[in-house]
Specification:
Layout lengths: L10 E7 L7 H12 L3 E7 L5 H10 L4 E4 L13 E2 L1 H6 L4 E5 L2 E5 L1 H12 L8 E5 L3 H12 L3 E5 L3 H11 L7 E3 L3 H8 L4 E4 L24 E4 L8 H8 L3 E3 L1 H17 L5 H11 L5
Parallel strand pairs: 1-2, 1-3, 4-6, 7-8, 7-10, 8-9, 10-11, 11-12
Antiparallel strand pairs: 3-5, 5-6
Helix pairs in contact: 1-10, 4-5, 4-9, 9-10
Bound molecules: 2'-monophosphoadenosine-5'-diphosphate.
């Protein structure tokens, strides 16, 4: 919203992280508040690790309506909340907090945002074979979400033991989760009948934009390729997937959807997700 329009009734939301300078969440949320004409503002807060508890007291004390949580606080923040939604608890990470009169509820809208972006592109995960590359924090949220939605999962990671670890932790949600490495052999075996491929690794992210985690020969029509990297907007993986006739989804879609789901919790209004995506693209310096 326009800062000049802040009033005595303005509700405050924001994001905590460290660093927080490069976040595009203020651009997305303030554009959405303005478009809906609602009296909210969204601000960045740099919060150091040792001040996290005090920051949560501040959210209560100042009656801040909602907070996104980013690196490095997504795990530690859970200790300071009153309730954590079941999926967020299973994932072990919270990226959005809603404050109802001092009662703080933690959610994981990264997981839901990923699923929404998939559904928006017509790729229903239920019963589909999905290959997830990477076994870090982002993969954790996405792998849990896919398993919960009934996808048949294969998790592949440069260090295969991390993939096996993650697969074990999810095994009760979906039977027969497979795990492996990123060798061409493991990749081609996993990709043979895959319908969804998700890259959660930083291979292909600026400044390593010349990299791709998947040999081009494994990309084909019938596959939906989702790269959660949003810098660059079109990674080498997505460019090669598109050229090979696959359907492609970029990281800004997940970014916009995770924001949209938090926005809906805080405002009770349907989020203008297309506009939030455009605002994120602009803030990232990408052409629309
Ligand atoms: P995030 O929260 O983005 O998932 P993370 O938890 O640090 O970040 O995880 C990074 C992921 O990217 C890991 O799966 C990592 O693989 P390892 O566990 O083997 O380290 C993966 N990754 C990072 N750089 C990579 C590269 N150049 N090639 C392949 N995988 C890479």
């Amino acid at each position: 919203m326009d800062g000049n329009a802040v009033s005595g009734r303005t509700r405050v939301c924001g994001v905590i992280g460290d660093p927080v300078e490069h976040t595009v969440s203020p651009a997305m949320h303030n554009a959405a508040f303005a478009a809906l004409g609602i009296d909210y503002i969204y601000l960045p807060f740099r919060v150091r690790k040792e001040h996290l508890g005090r920051a949560m007291d501040g959210v209560r004390g100042l009656n801040i309506r909602g907070m996104n949580v980013t690196i490095p606080h997504k795990i530690e923040v859970m200790a300071f909340l009153d309730e954590i939604e079941p999926l967020a608890r299973r994932i072990g990470a919270v990226n959005a907090i809603t404050n109802d009169d001092g009662f703080l509820t933690g959610s994981n809208t990264d997981a839901g945002g990923f699923i929404q972006a998939l559904l928006e592109h017509g790729a229903k995960p239920a019963g589909r074979k999905a290959v997830v590359l990477g076994a870090g924090g982002a993969s954790r949220a996405i792998s849990f979400a896919l398993a919960e939605k009934g996808a048949r999962l294969v998790i592949l990671n440069r260090h295969p033991e991390r993939a096996r670890d993650l697969a074990r932790q999810i095994s009760d949600l979906s039977p027969g989760i497979e795990a492996g490495g990123l060798s061409e052999e493991d990749l081609s075996a996993a990709m043979r009948d895959a319908e969804i491929l998700v890259n959660t690794t930083s291979a292909g992210m600026t400044p390593e934009a010349s990299l791709t985690p998947v040999p081009v020969g494994l990309l084909r029509p019938g596959l939906t390729v989702f790269d959660i990297v949003y810098n660059p907007a079109e990674t080498r993986l997505l460019r090669e997937a598109r050229a090979a006739g696959a359907a492609v989804i970029g990281g800004v879609d997940m970014l916009a959807w995770q924001g949209a789901l938090a926005f809906e919790k805080w405002t009770g209004r349907k989020a203008p997700v297309g506009l939030m995506k455009q605002a994120a693209m602009r803030a990232l310096g990408h052409e629309n």
